[in-house]
Design goal:
Layout: E1 4-8, H1 12-24, E2 28-32, H2 35-41, E3 47-51, E4 53-54, E5 57-58, H3 59-69, E6 75-80, H4 84-92, E7 97-101, H5 105-136, E8 137-138, E9 141-142, H6 146-158, E10 165-168, H7 175-184, E11 193-197, H8 203-211, H9 228-231, E12 236-240, H10 247-259, E13 261-263, E14 270-272, E15 276-281, H11 285-291, H12 296-302, E16 305-308, H13 317-334, E17 340-341, H14 343-351, H15 357-371, E18 376-377, H16 390-395, H17 409-423, H18 428-435, H19 439-449
Parallel strand pairs: 1-2, 1-3, 3-6, 6-7, 10-15, 10-16, 11-12, 12-15, 17-18
Antiparallel strand pairs: 4-5, 8-9, 13-14
Helix pairs in contact: 10-12, 13-15, 17-18, 18-19
Bound molecules: adenosine-5'-diphosphate and magnesium ion.
Adenosine-5'-diphosphate binds near residues 141, 174 and 362.
C-alpha cells in the first residue's frame, strides 16, 4: 500500500521540488502552504514533513496540534540552517526527526525512510504486545506457561465450532473456568450453559436428571420434567467428572453425541436435541478404558479435542502471575492493605507442590491476606499444608487407621507414589529409590495407575 506524505511548506518552489521527489519515489503527496490547511490533511497522512517556520503559526505550536490530532504519525521538521536549537526543541516536543535547510534530496529520502521504518517497528511492537497481553490472560484465566498459552490458543480455535472438548486435569486446575470460556466464546454464548456434575448425582437418579421423565415414570413422578440436556437445547452441556458416569448412562450419552437423540424416562417418544458437549475429568480415562469401566466408543466421541491442563506444580511460571492476580482480586474483599508479595513469600509459594492446584493457591492467598498486616504479603503470612507424609498418616494421630480415613489402600498407595514423584521432581529412578522399589517395579505400578511409565 502506498504511503501518503503531507508536506507543509510556505515556500512554493521548495514545496514543488519535495513533492516531485516524493511522488517519483512512489509516495502519495498532500501539500499545504499553511498550518491550518495542513491540519485538515493530518488524519490521512502516514508522515508529515513540515517547515518549522510557517506563516501565522509557530512550528512547535503546529507540532502540538498535529500530535493532538494524530499521536502516532511521524513528523519531520525542516528548519533553516542556524536554528539547530529550535530543531532540538522540536525533537523534544515530539518531532521524529529534522532536516536542516538546505538539504540534498538524497538526505531527504533517507530521513523519510528512516521515520517510516521506525513507525512500522513501533506498530509491530504494539501489535506484539497486544497479542502477548491477550495470551497471558484469557477471560480472567491467567497463564504465562507455554502449556497455558497453548490452551488459550486452542480455546480460541475450538470455541467457535461445535466440536466436543474433553478437559483433563487434576482438581483445581481450572476446568470449569475453561469450559465457561469455551461456551462464552462460541456462537452459543447467549444460549444456556448447563453444568452436570456426574459425580454428585446418585446413580439411580442420573437418567432422570439428564434426560428427564414423564409423569408416572416412577413412583413420585407426578408431573413430567425435562432433563438437563433438554434445558441446554441449542446451548452447551458441561459434563463434569465424566469418568463417574455409570455404564447404562454412558450408552445414552453416546447416542446423544452420535445421533443427537434421546428419550425421557418412561417415554418412547424420541426427542432430538442440538447441544454442544464439553466434558471434564480429573482421572485418567485411559486407565478406565483399560479396566473396561469406560466405553471406548464414548471416549473417542468425547475426545475430539483433548485439552490437557497440567497441574500447577508442572507450570511453576504461572504461580507468580496467579498469586499477584489473586492478591489484586481478593485484597479489596478482605479489607487488608496488601498490594504486593515479597520475594521470600513468592519463593515459598514457588517451592510448594500445590496438590490442590490453582484452587488451593487462591485459598492460600485469601487466608494469607487476612494474616497480613502491612502492604506486602510476607513469607510468615503464608500457611501451607505440609506435604502428606506416609509416616505421619500411618500413625494416624494414635488412632487405629492403617490408611487415612476415607482412602482405599489403592488410593493411599497412589498418593504415596505421587508424593515420591513430587519429591524427586518427576525423576522416576529417584522416586523409586525413595519408595524402596526398583525402577521397573515403580513403572509397573504407574501403568496400573494409568500414569505413563
Ligand atoms: N488459570 C487460572 N487463572 C485464574 N484463576 C484460575 C485459573 N485456574 C483456576 N482458577 C481458579 O481456581 C479455582 C478452581 O478452578 P476450577 O475451574 O473450578 O477448577 P476445576 O474445575 O479444574 O476443579 C476457581 O476459583 C478458578 O477461578
Ligand atoms: Mg470443576
Amino acid at each position: 500500500m502506498k504511503k501518503r506524505i503531507l508536506v507543509v511548506e510556505d515556500e512554493e518552489k521548495l514545496r514543488r521540488v519535495i513533492e516531485l521527489q516524493l511522488t517519483s519515489a512512489g509516495f502519495d503527496v498532500d501539500k499545504a502552504a499553511a498550518a491550518e490547511d495542513g491540519l485538515r490533511l493530518v488524519d490521512r497522512a502516514d508522515l508529515v514533513l513540515t517547515d518549522l517556520k510557517l506563516p501565522n503559526m509557530d512550528g512547535l505550536q503546529f507540532l502540538a496540534l498535529i500530535r493532538r490530532q494524530n499521536s502516532q504519525v511521524p513528523v519531520i521538521m525542516m528548519t533553516a540552517f542556524g536554528s539547530v536549537e529550535t530543531a532540538v526543541g522540536a525533537m523534544k516536543a515530539g518531532a521524529t526527526d529534522f532536516l536542516l535547510k538546505p538539504f540534498s534530496l538524497d538526505h531527504l529520502m533517507q530521513v523519510v525512510h528512516k521515520a517510516l521504518e521506525i513507525r512500522a517497528l513501533r506498530d509491530e511492537n504494539r501489535q506484539l504486545k497486544a497479542e502477548l497481553g491477550r495470551r497471558y490472560e484469557f477471560d480472567n484465566i491467567i497463564g504465562r506457561s507455554p502449556a497455558m498459552q497453548e490452551i488459550f490458543a486452542t480455546i480460541e480455535r475450538v470455541a467457535p465450532t461445535r466440536a466436543t472438548v474433553l478437559l483433563a486435569g487434576e482438581s483445581g486446575t481450572g476446568k470449569d473456568l475453561i469450559a465457561r470460556a469455551i461456551h462464552f466464546h462460541s456462537p452459543r454464548k447467549d444460549r444456556p450453559l448447563v453444568k452436570i456434575n456426574c459425580a454428585a448425582i446418585p446413580e439411580n437418579l442420573m437418567e432422570s436428571e439428564l434426560f428427564g421423565y414423564e409423569k408416572g415414570a416412577f413412583t413420585g413422578a407426578q408431573t413430567s420434567k425435562p432433563g438437563k440436556f433438554e434445558q441446554a437445547d441449542t446451548g452447551t452441556v458441561f459434563l463434569d467428572e465424566i469418568g463417574d458416569v455409570p455404564a447404562p448412562i454412558q450408552i445414552k450419552l453416546l447416542r446423544i453425541l452420535q445421533e443427537r437423540e434421546f428419550e425421557r424416562l418412561g417415554s418412547n417418544q424420541t426427542r432430538h436435541i442440538d447441544v454442544r458437549v464439553i466434558a471434564a475429568t480429573n482421572q485418567d480415562l485411559r486407565a478406565a478404558l483399560e479396566q473396561g469401566t469406560f466405553r471406548e466408543d464414548l471416549y473417542y466421541r468425547l475426545n475430539v479435542v483433548p485439552l490437557n491442563i497440567p497441574a500447577l506444580r508442572e507450570r511453576k511460571q504461572d504461580i507468580a502471575f496467579l498469586a499477584n492476580h489473586f492478591v489484586k482480586k481478593l485484597a479489596p474483599d478482605t479489607g487488608c492493605q496488601v498490594e504486593s508479595i515479597t520475594d521470600a513469600a513468592m519463593q515459598k509459594l514457588m517451592a510448594y507442590h500445590w496438590p490442590g492446584n490453582v484452587r488451593e493457591l487462591e485459598n492460600v492467598i485469601e487466608r494469607s491476606l487476612v494474616m497480613a498486616t502491612g502492604t506486602q504479603l510476607d513469607a510468615g503470612d503464608i500457611r501451607l499444608e505440609p506435604p502428606p507424609s506416609p509416616r505421619r498418616a500411618q500413625s494416624g494421630g494414635g488412632d487405629s487407621h492403617f490408611v487415612p480415613e476415607g482412602m482405599s489402600l489403592d488410593q493411599y498407595e497412589q498418593e504415596i507414589i505421587k508424593e515420591a514423584l513430587r519429591r524427586a521432581d518427576g525423576n522416576k529412578s529417584q522416586a523409586a529409590r525413595l519408595l524402596g522399589l526398583t525402577r521397573n517395579a515403580l513403572r509397573y505400578r504407574l501403568t496400573q495407575m494409568g500414569m505413563e511409565a
